Structures are given as C-alpha cells and as structure tokens.
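Predict both folds.
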Amino acid sequence: MLRLTWVQPEDLIGHELRQAAQDGRDATRIERRWVAAGGHLAPDRAGASPEPASLELRQLAQQLLDELAQLPSPLAAAEPPMFQARPVLDDKPFGRLPEPDLRSETDRQSETDRLHAAWLGRAIGCVLGKPVEKLPLDGIRAIARSTGNWPLNTWFTERNLNQRIAAAYPWNRRSRPTSLAENIDGMPEDDDLNYPLLGLMLLQRHGHDFTTGDVAKLWLDELPAGRTFTAERIAYRNLLDGLEPPHTATHRNPFREWIGAQIRADIFGWTNPGDPAKAAELAHRDGVLTHTANGVYGEMFVAAAIAHAAGPAPTTIHETLATALAHIPPGSRYAQAIRFGVETAQAEPTGTPAGFEQVVDALHARYAHDHHWVHVLPNAALLAAALTHSDGEFTGTICRAVSGGWDTDSNGATAGSIAGLLAGSPEALGERWTAPLKNRLATTVGGFDGIGFDELARLTLEARA
C-alpha cells in the first residue's frame, strides 16, 4: 500500500501533540484518547508509522487535530500570530547600497563576487551536510573520527571508514552517491537550493511587491509536490484543497514551526543589502504560506542577517547576529534559541574548533529530548553557535554547523551562505570546496537545471530592488 509521508492524519497527530507540549497547551486528555485508540506518538527520525491506519483511526486523528488547534497557548503574547508579526525596528535602510545603475563597474563586480560566494557557500554547506543528514550526533562524530576528519574540516568520505561504524551509522541513502569526497560531481538537487531558485523566480516575475498568494501560485506552477516536505507539503496539500494563506499554514500542520521557512530566506537578504528590515518583511510575506510564529521568525531572522552581512559597511558576524535578532519578537522562543546559541558559544574559546564539542553537547542537552531534529529551534541555536564560535570564518562555520547534527544540510547551507558573503569572493572560500561543484547546479525548478553559480549571482544582482 502506498504510504504518503508528512500528510496522513495518523502521522501528523503525534507531531501536533509534541508541538502542543512545547507551546504549553494542555493536551493530556487528547493524547490519552489517541493512545487508547491505538494511535502512535511522534517518531524521532521518520515521517510515517510503519503500518497504514484503519479508517476509524484516521477519522479520529482528523477530529483530534482539529481539537488540538482550539487549545489556547500561553505563549501567544510573546509570539504574535503570523499575520501580525512584523520587524520590530523601523524600516530605515542601514547602509544600503546605491541603485545598480549608480554603481561603478568595479562596485558591480565586487557585489557579483559576493553573491557568487554566497550561492557557492550555500551549496557547499549543503553538500557537506547531506551524507550525514538524519544521523544521530554520536554517528557523525564516530564517522568523522574513524576517517581522520575530526574536528570536521573537509568533506565526508568512506575511505578508511571502519566497517563496524559504517554498519551502525549508514549514510543518508539518497545523498551517499553524490555528496562524499570521492563522488561529488557538481551540486546535486536539494530543496535547500530549490527554494532560493524559486525565490529568485518570484522576484523576477513579481518584483519586491509580491504577495503570499503569488508565492502560492508560483509553487503550484513550478514546484513538483514530491519535492516538498513537512510544512511545505502540508501547505501544498491545503492549497489543492482550496485553502488560502494564512490558513494553508495552520490547517492540520504540526510542522509549522519547523525549519522549512528558514531555508527559504536567503534570496530576500541577498536582494536587500543593507536593509535588514525590508528583507525580514519579504521573508515574512513568504513564510506565512507554510509556517507560523517561530517558523516564520526563522525566515525573518536569516533574511535580516544576510541583508546586514551583504551591506556595504564592514561588519562582523557578531554585529550581523545582533542586528538580525532585533527584527524578531524578543520574547519568542526563537530569539531565546539564538541568544542561547550565541552565549553558549561565547563561553568556550572561540576561533578554533577546540571546545565546540562542549557547545554542541549543551545545545543537545537543552533541545534534543523535546524537539524533532527538523524543528527550527534547536537548529537556530546551532546556527548561531556555529557562526559565533568560528567568528564567521567560512570553513570553521560550515564544519561546526554540520558537526552539530540535527538538520545538517540545511544548517550547513544557511551557515555557508552567511559566511560566504562575509568571505567576499569565491576564491576566498578555497578551491577544495568550490572545485568539486564544477559551477553546476542540478534542479527540477524550471529553467535552472545545470546553471552556474556565477550566472545565479548575476541574476540575483539584477533582482535587487
């Protein structure tokens, strides 16, 4: 029997019960009814139960999902509803670049180089994390140590990998053929790159005045449903069922505070250099199609960080993180996660890999028990910690982000994008990272398959407001 993951009610309710607990909503009575009826709770590393549910159990799951949606959250005041959340600073540009036609050819080339490094950085970090996606932290560490790559400093490989460790911690099945040191041949398709492509297409078609409805229509036109996961797949289903934003994000969607929106942020930062408030506004408009509260704040935060890092004024990663933090609700759990990541990283010696294991252990002690590995909060804390502990240096940043586990390819991608911008040029990233990608990106997003990262940089520059 066909098992459609991430959409079946009996697979969603366990995740919604977990989200309710994180929100402080009392779902004890509902959980007891579900378990008594034979329902399962949320798995840690899978999207679906092993057996199809009966019609009666599926109907009960639908009923209970709707009941869960009615439970009030005591955190609502600190985490405003998605359609009310806005950047908390005014929208005055911060050192914004002049209009493209007012810049010299040298300036334009410099900006193109920075965008080229950002696209490459996103791709490199993504590929670095792909083979160990879904593996537990102990597995990542064991593999890296077995191959002489710990602290993590280069691509994963299975050369000289102890076979006992290989059997205990198998590579991500889909990624192994395209993301190990011995077989990388261009950038393989991944949703962490598909979404920036879709965002670029969105700006090409609608400019910076796009609506959330424009995002929805673009997805239906250009994004294959099978390339969506978690909250994006739920929103896609809701669109096909006739729902409109923001209800696409809220209707039976337990993944609405997971990482999906955060990985769509980059294009809004890249195209609003020096204007983090505007970048956060566009990210909010995109994010509410699929996410709420902390899920949306994640996209706003990353967009604001990238816009700040892309500005003309010299900056540090620490200034960038502080600026981005000012563009999300300060009492939200997302803001708390960023602050915890930064503070935990600062408590250990920074600038070298030594000590980052202790940082990661502290993050996992705080988040691993109660949060799925794709939830936005633990990954946000890890992203902030990796950037802080490495001082934004490219190799240190992506390796720390990936070595910390959880959503390894997404964290590597976002960390690489920000650190790539700060590095300033493809050459600054290092040939050992850039050469295997061969300036070639594979994708099913129409018109972009096989495109070079240099061309993407040029198109991104053209899409700036």
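Second protein follows, with its predicted structure tokens after the sequence.
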Amino acid sequence: MTTSLSLGPDWLDPTTLISTFGLIGILAIVFAESGLLVGFFLPGDSLLFTAGLLVAGGTLPQPLWLVAGLVVVAAVAGDQVGYVFGRKVGPGLFRRPDSRLFKQENVVKATGFFDRHGPKAIVLARFVPVVRTFTPVIAGVGGMDYRRFVRYNVLGGVLWGAGVTVLGYFLGQIAFVRDNIELILVGIVLVSAVPVAVELLRARRAGRPAVD
C-alpha cells in the first residue's frame, strides 16, 4: 500500500514519513503541528488518515488502539506546550518579525478565529490547518483559564487525533479506498484547505471598504 502525494515535497508525503520514521515519526509530527510554531506546514490530517490506512493494511504493525491513543496524547501535549508558550511570550508574539517559518498573518488568522468562536475554537481549530498550530498559543496569550483550556484541548485532541486515525482505519478496509489512496489523500488536503480559504475570504471582505 504505497502512494506518492504530489502536492508537496517528497519528504512531506505521509506514506514516506510513516515508512521512514514509523509511529515515533507520527507522534513527533502531531506534537510539532499541534504546539510548535514551526509545525504549521506539516501534513497532520493526511498523516493521521494514512496511519489508519496503514494499520488496516498491516503495514504499520501497531494496533489501532495504541496508535490512536498515542496520537491523542501527542496532540494534547503539543497544545499544552503551545498554551504555555503563549502565556510566557505574551504580546511579544505579535511583534515577532516574519521569517521563512513564521508569518504574522498566521497569528492574525488564528486570533480572528479564536475571537469569533471563543473557547470552542480550541476544538474547531484542530480541523483547520495552520490555525490549529497557532490557536493554543493565542489562548495562552489571551490568558484563557487553564482548566477550561485543558478540557477543550483534550476534547479536541480526541475528536481529531483518534477520529481521523480511526476513520482512515475503517475506510482503509474498503477496496476503492485502498486502490485510490493518492486520490483520497488529495481530497483530504483539498477539504482541509476549505476552512483556510473561508477564513481568508472573510478577512478580505472585512478589510474591504464599504461602498455607498
């Protein structure tokens, strides 16, 4: 069961990452994408879905319950680190200059998402690429109650981490999915991009001057 996802560099292909680094690599990527500012470009959704597919096909030898459980732990731990980073760094994050791996527009995007959805943004952001990396940091910057953050963080980690992995596992037992993995992964990437496109459209409309 192999594929080559052509939407990015070869080393970001989910199957390549999993075949090279195994379960440890999956957990490291989930942790980085969930809480480290440099992890926003990592393929979280397609990686988890592929992990479920490979467990179903026997390529990934660990049982589903172990993979899904450890993914949840990595996702929750990543967000916890992001929250603590936000509390420590505070407003200085908004003065940080742009670099190849850090863009102020990502902070602004996550801030707007958090402002619109409130605490439930911690859960919703799990399913929005880029935003999920910065939202826990923004929660820390804003001083969100820690216990409340932990509750939403765990809920989001379970729904996203276990949910996407288990979905990949069960769909991986369907012949059409097994025979068209690349097409399925491209679809996941495109669907994941929809919330980002919606956020960008809203931001553009909000910044457009009113016409009399």
